Amino acid sequence: MGIDEYGGGQGPRPDVLVVTTNDVPGYRVREVVGEVFGLTVRSRHLGSQIGAGLKSMVGGELRGLTKTLVQTRNQAMERLVEQARARGANGVLAFRFDVTEAADVGTEVCAYGTAVVIEPVHTE
Hints:
Protein name: UPF0145 protein SSQG_04392
Family: Belongs to the UPF0145 family.
Largest sheet: 4 strands, mixed
InterPro entries: UPF0145_dom_sf (IPR035439), UPF0145_YbjQ-like (IPR002765)
CATH architecture: 2-Layer Sandwich
Helix content: 25-40%
Organism: Streptomyces viridochromogenes (strain DSM 40736 / JCM 4977 / BCRC 1201 / Tue 494)
Strand order of the largest sheet: 1-3-4-2
């Protein structure tokens, strides 16, 4: 699974296809396995909080926080894929992220969706 520094990506051919849609063109859902999720909570680093505070006064991207959030989302997605794979699924439909503050000490990121077994539709 190839994931770059500031974005997602599943590489050339993932064994668990994750999509935000409710279906996959050219495939049919053979079995709905059920809801799957990946959760992670990251605490804030004091240095990054100070840097973010200073940067917010002058404007611009908070690169350190952006990188941390991308890493956190990727970790949550990897956990979702692991859970789907462990339950015998080869796809996750209606994939979403939920991001919330966790008791003023960090950020909770939950990746969730519906695990399914999909198969190609054969048209002749």
